[in-house]
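Q: Sequence in, structure out?
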Amino acid sequence: MVDCDNASPEALEYALHMVAQFGRVVLRRGYGNHSTLANRWQEALVRLAFTPCLQYQYAAGKNTADIALALDAMEAMFDSRADTFCLVTSDSDFAYLCRKLRERGATVFIVGEAKTPDALRNASDQFFAWQRPEPSLAGTDSVELKPASPSKAPAKRRPKTLISAVTLLAGDTEDGRVGLGALGQYLKRTDPGFSAKVYGHATLSDMVRTYPDLVMTQEPGTGFWVSLKPKSEPKSAGAVATVI
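A: Exactly. Output:
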């Protein structure tokens, strides 16, 4: 469900590629006023088989398209036509809709630009950042769609949130460790935009290996496990080393 008054047509293909990994996309709708859908969005909606949901605004400044999108989303959920939703928007006004859908058991994804407020990001199950493509220097009409990422690889970083997550999840277990998959799911739930690539790592396992305070082990049949490295016992203050 696309907020055409807020999003860009170039984001459509990227959004479809992201949500295709979670299932079949059976409902495709673009919401906007007459001038928006007739001009910028017409070609993209037709080409990608989206149903244009035209909303006439009889008074200036009214959020007619936003209200229609929200009502149709709730209707689709209550009619059991969908249990997973993807909103293409950067408008934080949809944060309440996301929360209501999730309260009813639905899964919600957001595709938005880097400017998307945290209020909307954190109201979703997962946030996908889309970067507006740079204008073509060759003057062609072709557009390259790509996820948000800087021109060069980001520097590798080790956020403290990962240490805190392992401490929390492994602290209540008998063996003091947490599965790598469960760790990744927790990080996604606490920060829908979390990705190891954002911190310069190819995968979460590669990221974990860079932490000197973490230990990752692999067991056949059960996968990877992460735990805190045991702290070495401090030497006694009166101990004297003897060399023979």
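Residues 136-145, 239-244 have pLDDT under 50 and may be disordered.
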